[in-house]
User: Which sequence fits this backbone?
């Protein structure tokens, strides 16, 4: 039996930490899928519950030297970690600033002869020791964990680089007081080690704050759930914790209160603010029989509702889980970055050692210049930028999508949506409203009187056509009488007695069966049928009084959506099981040129496969019904509307929660913008390392035309560059937040 868990992890400092945990988890028997994200600081693990349990997985992570936070304590643990990091940075600043000023002042001869005294070295050691011993402690502990797990990470690079500078300086300081002093130079580099550690700590704090902004919107969503509910039992009100609500419970919701769980209105009328899901500021009227969703706000009337979905099964809980899962997943583009990250630290360490040996022995530059180049390389190299390049952008993109009602199932769906070349749209419920609406009233008499009488006759009908007539009369504020008698004629219409009037409403065959002349309205009926509308003949007391027409009307945003999809370079195809005339009429109204009609569900899947074979098209299928499921599964990207069936939403790779077609081109633009950001991040991360590591190694030193200050990279500048590289990647991902329309 498969089971999935999301574990919050603390103690990760770079992408190599995440890779180490992932590697060891995947080696465990019973682990089916394991993805660890540095950006979210979560491990998403799918395992065989018959072979393994959660406790064993948690123990394995802790054995690797990391910690798994208990449920409900995540925020407190991360806050405590943040406070510790801030304290370490504060200590670093307090001791590094005077150490830096003292060192620079002595090197520039600004402090007088006293600054060159031997005791000043011991003073600098005293200032550097708290930084090396306390502020850098997590780098040492991280290095020990990494080496124990036979891996290497950023902590190893920082610990090695700063330790070389610190302990070399300590050796010089000790030697200067003995006969060994003549074998060493007099210069010490305590300030180099301290500045490196403090700068990197500052970069990590800025990075953490930026990452916090990325996840802030998602963290707010669980706070929308009410904590209590009012249950009605035996006529009494019981105020209970939300966890005690069960499926089938009847709940009372007063104006101003949040809907506690998903359910159906049993009594009362109200307006519900659903902006948390739909983004619409206008409230939606709810009457008995309508569905209501947890965390939406009851604005005006008192409602009683029956709970249908509770806890993790509510729409909001499923939305949060889907977004978290997507943010954990890795799109294909990240595989190259992961491959580089896995070998990055060992390769860089090798380059640093070789550089040290070359400059010391082959070039003959001496121990100190060779050591500084080794330190610069170790500190410059930054696997974190590579590790953060993709997940931070994915987190930002999926978070923005969730805010706008666009849910991507995983990172691959987010990546591929921007490459779509063909969009196939189902007709009923996707391009159209999915419900019948009264479109025409044709009569020689008063339209309202004909509609009022027809609605009264149809009042007892359960057929969608009859309900459309009644709904139209209600929307016009007409009084609808109750029929004295009613009979449904299956497949044809109804007959009813309304007051003194005998009413027949239905198709032409029903009217002909009652021998009622139809010539007066035959031309009008043919015209309406050509417009793909269903025609109702209305006869009163044996005479045709007029025609009513109903149709599944085109969504108001459909035409603009088709135009926008074409602007984005996508071909648009309509696919339906409906007849050719109806299909052509709807397609013409929407502006779609290619139409596939009269298709069964399996035909739709085959048609998608044929489209995919044409010039390697990347095809999306947009649908909402059970009959669309095979095509949704066959498509490269299946897209379901939020109002669609459960199986359609489960099959789809993308769900448009608002059921607004204009979210479709927005999803494509969001994907393209996110992918562009990822490529920018990866370019910067690779470019940074490829450019600065050779400079740190002294590759520009022989080039006399290069100004002296640019020929080498001092370790302190290397530390600044390293911190800046990670921060810049995160900030670039945050830019997605400001690109509101994702235009190009």
Assistant:
């Amino acid at each position: 039996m498969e089971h999935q868990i999301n574990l919050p992890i603390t103690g990760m400092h770079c992408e190599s930490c995440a890779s180490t945990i992932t590697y060891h988890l995947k080696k465990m028997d019973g682990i089916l899928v394991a993805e660890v994200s540095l950006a979210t600081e979560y491990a998403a693990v799918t395992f065989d519950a018959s072979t393994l349990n959660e406790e064993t997985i948690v123990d394995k992570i802790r054995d690797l030297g990391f910690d798994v936070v208990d449920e409900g304590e995540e925020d407190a643990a991360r806050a405590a970690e943040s406070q510790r990091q801030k304290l370490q940075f504060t200590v670093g600043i307090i001791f590094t600033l005077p150490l830096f000023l003292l060192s620079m002042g002595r090197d520039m001869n600004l402090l007088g002869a006293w600054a060159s005294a031997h005791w000043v070295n011991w003073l600098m050691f005293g200032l550097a020791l708290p930084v090396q011993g306390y502020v850098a402690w997590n780098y040492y502990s991280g290095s020990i964990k990494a080496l124990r797990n036979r891996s290497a990470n950023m902590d190893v690079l920082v610990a090695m680089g700063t330790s070389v500078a610190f302990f070399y300086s300590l050796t010089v300081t000790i030697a200067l007081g003995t006969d060994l002093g003549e074998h060493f130079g007099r210069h010490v580099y305590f300030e180099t080690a301290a500045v490196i550690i403090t700068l990197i700590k500052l970069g990590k704090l800025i990075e953490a704050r930026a990452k916090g902004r990325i996840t802030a919107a998602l963290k707010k969503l669980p706070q929308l759930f009410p904590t209590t509910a009012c249950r009605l039992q035996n006529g009494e009100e019981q105020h209970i914790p939300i966890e005690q609500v069960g499926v089938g419970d009847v709940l009372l919701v007063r104006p101003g209160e949040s809907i506690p769980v998903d359910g159906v209105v049993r009594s009362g009328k109200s307006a519900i603010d659903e902006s948390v899901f739909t983004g619409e500021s206008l409230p939606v009227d709810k009457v008995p029989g309508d569905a209501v969703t947890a965390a939406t706000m009851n604005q005006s009337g008192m409602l009683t509702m029956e709970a249908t979905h509770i806890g993790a099964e509510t729409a909001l809980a499923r939305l949060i889980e889907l977004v978290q899962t997507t943010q954990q997943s890795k799109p294909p583009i990240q595989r190259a970055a992961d491959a580089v990250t896995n070998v990055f630290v060992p390769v860089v360490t090798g380059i640093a050692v070789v550089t040290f040996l070359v400059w010391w022995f082959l070039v003959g530059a001496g121990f100190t210049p060779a050591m500084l180049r080794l330190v610069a390389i170790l500190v410059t190299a930054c696997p974190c930028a590579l590790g953060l390049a993709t997940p931070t952008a994915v987190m930002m993109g999926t978070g923005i999508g969730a805010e706008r009602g666009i849910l991507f199932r995983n990172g691959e769906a987010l990546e591929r949506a921007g490459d779509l070349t063909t969009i196939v749209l189902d007709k009923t419920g996707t391009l159209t409203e999915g419900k019948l609406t009264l479109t025409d009233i044709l009569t020689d008499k008063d339209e309202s009187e004909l509609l009022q009488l027809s609605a009264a006759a149809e009042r007892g009908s359960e057929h969608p056509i009859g309900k459309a007539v009644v709904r139209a009369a209600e929307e016009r504020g007409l009084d609808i009488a109750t029929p004295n008698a009613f009979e449904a004629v299956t497949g044809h219409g109804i007959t009813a007695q309304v007051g003194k009037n005998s009413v027949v409403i239905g198709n032409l065959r029903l009217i002909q069966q009652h021998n009622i002349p139809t010539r007066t309205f035959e031309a009008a009926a043919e015209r309406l049928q050509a417009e793909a509308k269903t025609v109702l003949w209305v006869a009163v007391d044996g005479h045709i009084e007029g025609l009513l027409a109903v149709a599944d009307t085109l969504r108001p945003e459909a035409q603009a959506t088709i135009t926008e999809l074409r602007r984005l370079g996508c071909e648009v195809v309509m696919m339906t099981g409906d007849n050719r005339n109806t299909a052509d009429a709807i397609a013409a109204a929407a502006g779609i040129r290619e139409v596939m009609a009269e298709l069964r569900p399996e035909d739709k899947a085959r048609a998608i496969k044929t489209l995919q074979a044409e010039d390697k098209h990347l095809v999306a299928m947009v649908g909402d019904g059970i009959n669309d499921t095979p095509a949704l599964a066959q498509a490269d990207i299946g897209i379901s509307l939020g109002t669609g069936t459960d199986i359609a939403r489960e099959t789809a790779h993308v769900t448009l929660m608002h059921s607004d077609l204009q979210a479709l081109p927005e999803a494509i633009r969001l994907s393209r913008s996110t992918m562009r950001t990822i490529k920018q991040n990866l370019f910067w991360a690779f470019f940074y390392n490829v450019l600065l590591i050779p400079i740190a190694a002294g590759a520009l030193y022989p080039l006399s035309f290069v100004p002296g200050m640019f020929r080498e990279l001092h370790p302190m500048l290397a530390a600044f560059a390293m911190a800046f590289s990670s921060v810049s990647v995160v900030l670039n991902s945050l830019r997605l937040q400001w690109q509101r329309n994702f235009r190009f």
Q: What stands out?
A: The chain has five domains: 2-71, 74-224+330-405+666-744, 226-311, 409-431+555-665, 435-553. The first strand starts at residue 2 and ends at 10. The radius of gyration is 35 Å.
